Amino acid sequence: MDWVWEEKDGCRFLTIPRWWTQGARVFFSSRAGGASTGPWAELNLGLHVGDEPGQVAQNRDKLARAVGLADYAWYAARQVHGNDVVVVDAQAAGTPSQPGALGDADGIATRRRGAVLMGFFADCAPLFFFAPRRQVVALAHAGWRGTVGKVAQEAVYRLEQEFDCRRGDLQVAIGPCIGVCCYQVGAEVIELVRERFGSAGEAFLGHRNNALYLDLAGLNRFILVAAGVPAQSIITSRYCTSCHPELFFSHRREAGKTGRMAGGIALR
Questions:
Q1: What CA–CA distance (Å, rounded) separates 106 from 57?
Q2: Which letter does DSSP use for residue 268 in this model?
Q3: What is the pTM of this model?
Q4: What is the structure's pLDDT at 1?
Q5: SS3 per-residue string spanning 22-69
Q6: Structural domain boundaries of the chain?
Q7: Tell me: the pLDDT tens digits for 210-236?
Q8: Which one, 51, 73, 114, 254, has the greatest CB density within 10 A?
Q9: Taking the CB of residue 80, how many other CB atoms lie within 10 A of it?
Q10: What's the CATH class of domain 4-177+229-267?
């Protein structure tokens, strides 16, 4: 089963019901149903983008209630477009409006029940990991830097090393991100893709009007399969964040002046 929409109290978000039946709640918010205005309207969840902090806190609390995780302990890392993966163990817990701080990292993993791993997105690819047998979850943030740095692969390896998760047992969901239809990239990105992936990388560079476009979701899927995740166990969203202003914030579409969606995952 693919991503499906749910809505509660005007707050719309994507989730995967099948994962919930296996023990994990996953969500990716839309921009609908919040209190923010201007370029951050409506459900902006990022505190670092210029929006009023009180509105952001209100939005985060509303989302937490909508997804049914308001009473859980919340955690978030400071995303730096790298490939480090941190494990939630004994760190101080937080709330939806003020999640427990995990330092600089673009991946988070845990086996703690009742802990929500949260990340913020506005074109970068959200990667959600679930190991049903081991009851372990993880979340990664993959922009172009994190993607070519193989944060997806690092998450797979960390789950194996830290929690003894078999790669063949992992389920991974790629949430909405900017698509190859909209993600024009320059020479720096193209050179790195070709350097890191060789001829295989060409499959993820779209050519149009003398410009090159990156298939962010497709390249992450390729990395995951190469790392040992079964292709049939990877769910990819059909949504491009740049193509759907009614649903999502987009850093590229709005030239940086916009809000953030949140993605999260927790063991129930």
A1: 22
A2: -
A3: 0.98
A4: 58
A5: HCEEEEEECCCCCCCCHHHCCCCCCCCCCCCHHHHHHHHHHHHHHCCC
A6: 4-177+229-267
A7: 999 999 999 999 999 999 999 999 999
A8: 51
A9: 14
A10: alpha beta
